[in-house]
């Protein structure tokens, strides 16, 4: 891209953001939210909180195990904080894996020390620390997909050129 066009695009993007700010009268416009990822982050938090309510259901053992592993390994509790479990479980308890000293029914004892940091923050940190690895994995998958398409097109042209037809 030519440098002069890049400057024009940057100016246009800034202008669009300021127009959105003027229109909505605040800095949290739809364009600004899209650029900063706030909406995605809020939706992810809400989805995770909705998932907490399914923790004790019988047909979601995988979900329960996932939460237990994440909370134990990353020393976190809930989505934002351990109090998220109070809303989800409809009582002032947390899963035992939220306890700093883990033992049977430790999450029911209100005097225990729970991990206060939410798991969403820990996940964001993990993603930030591993963004290069995740990007590399994504690029490898992209290359494999592109090679697959190229080989399928080559095969298609080869079959088409030889005049072979599929007989049902």
The helix tally amounts to 7
What's the overall average pLDDT, rounded?
A: 81
Beta-strand percentage range = under 5%
Distance between the termini: 51 Å
Task: Please give the largest β-sheet.
Answer: none
The CATH homologous superfamily of the largest domain:
Tetraspanin
At CATH level 3, the topology of the largest domain is Cd81 Antigen, Extracellular Domain, Chain: A
Instruction: Give the domain tally.
Output: 3
Oligomeric organization of the protein chains? single chain
How many strands in all? 0
> For the CA atoms, what is the radius of gyration?
25 Å
Helix content: 55-70%
**Low-confidence regions:** none
Q: From the coordinates shown, what is the CATH architecture of the largest domain?
A: Orthogonal Bundle
Family: Belongs to the tetraspanin (TM4SF) family.
Protein name: Tetraspanin-9
Subcellular location: Membrane
Main location: membrane
Characterize this entry briefly.
Keywords: Glycoprotein, Membrane, Transmembrane, Transmembrane helix. The protein is mainly alpha-helical and 168 residues long.
């Amino acid at each position: 891209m030519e440098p002069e066009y890049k400057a024009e695009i940057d100016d246009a993007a800034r202008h669009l953001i300021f127009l959105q700010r003027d229109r909505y009268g605040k800095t949290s416009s739809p364009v600004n939210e899209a650029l900063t990822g706030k909406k995605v982050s809020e939706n992810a938090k809400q989805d995770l909180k909705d998932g907490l309510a399914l923790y004790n259901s019988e047909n979601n053992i995988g979900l329960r195990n996932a939460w237990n592993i994440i909370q134990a390994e990353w020393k976190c509790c809930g989505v934002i904080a351990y109090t998220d479990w109070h809303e989800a479980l409809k009582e002032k308890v947390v899963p035992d894996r939220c306890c700093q000293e883990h033992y049977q029914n430790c999450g029911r004892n209100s005097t225990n020390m729970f991990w206060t940091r939410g798991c969403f923050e820990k996940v964001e940190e993990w993603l930030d620390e591993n963004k290069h690895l995740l990007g590399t994995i994504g690029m490898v998958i992209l290359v494999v997909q592109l090679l697959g398409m190229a080989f399928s097109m080559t095969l298609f042209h080869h079959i088409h050129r030889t005049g072979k037809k599929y007989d049902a």
